[in-house]
Amino acid sequence: MSETAVKSGVAVEKAPAGSPDSQPQLESWNRPPVIAPEGEGELLEVSMGPHHPSTHGVFRMDVALDGEKVIKLKPVFGYLHRNHEQIAETASYLAMMPYTDRLDYFCSLTNNWAYALAVEKLVGQAVPERAEYIRVILAELTRVQNHASAIGFLIQEMGASGTPLMYAFKMREKILDLFESLTGSRMMCNYMRFGGCRVDVSEPWLAQARKVVEGLPKFVDEYEALLTGNEILMARTQGVGVLRPELAVNAGITGPMLRASGVNYDIRKVDHYGIYDRFKFRVPLGDHGDIFDRYMVRVLEMRESIGILEQALKEVPGGPVMDPKAKIRGFKPKPGEAYGRIEAPKGELGFYLISTGNPEPYRYRVRPPSLINLTVLEDMCLGHNVADVVLIFGSVDIVLGEVDR
Asked: pLDDT tens digits for 224-246?
């Protein structure tokens, strides 16, 4: 039985001796700070979700409140679990490509790329240069529309209903038009293949892509003019939901969340996968790790993506988009294992595969950034008001299809 003490009219349960919570040797970053209730009264436990306008799908947060202050928060996942990994272990390698679209339905093309990269590492498959350029172009277009939408949703959750999100969607529609004309689908694109891409881009498609990219700097300028200097945005986001760099690194946080905490880590720079080492771009970093820094890092990353797009669209070479030696039918990798990862818009997206020489993977494991980045939600929310929880959660930028799989 645990020992119970009564303090200020609120029952405070002490951890039994020997339990993990009773171990004082743990580093401070390894656990959220303990916040004691103030004054007299009772804690209010609120279940936010699973159907809540701010939760981006079926997600629940069990929040314990002292007045309006958050003293405990427990994320609850699993409402959208679909056996994604188990299905992969009963299907052929190629049959799983369209399933990867459904992980993060905002970023199906980068999902395709991460999975194709893992399989290509498993079998030692080469990729033609033209296909590498097309992959970079599609990935950076995906990053721009993802970040713009994430900012629009964040502002929407702040109470600015409509304009910022619809402004982002206006630009996003132009990018989705490009995806649709190339792949036949706006969101479930199923475009990458092991050793290249399913179909080639045409010259009219490239011309239209250049026209869309030419308009992106003006879009980002106007988006920033609308939002960055807004007093309400700064008051609600600066100093709120701070993620310390030590905790971010030790929790495995990646993507804009990690870089907003000042940690210089971008897999495009670290791994140089694809042909990213050919392009000049910077890695924007934050100073404070709060919501505002996460917002600004995404804005600056859109600008860097535009620079990469301009370089790639200028230099895209001719040639095939599929390696003629690539094997599509009767695909049976030799026994082995491989992990392929990319810098997806939300962070590190990786696929781990084990082959035993059969047509289907023996083990198929996804490393989804949305799930990993959510694990520090309580640390960022403790001590803030319940209204800030919605903003902090929005600044993580998740998709539940990837969290639950």
From this structure: 998 998 888 888 998 899 999 99
Mean pLDDT value across the chain = 86
Closest CA to 147 of 183, 114, 171: 171
Rounded average pLDDT over 129-135: 94
The model's pTM is 0.84
| pLDDT value, residue 65 | 86
pLDDT in tens, 40-65: 667 788 888 777 766 667 888 888 88
Q: How far apart are CA 245 and CA 250, in angstroms?
A: 9
To the nearest 10°, report the CA torsion of 183, 189, 195, 199.
Answer: -10
Higher-confidence position of 38 and 255: 255
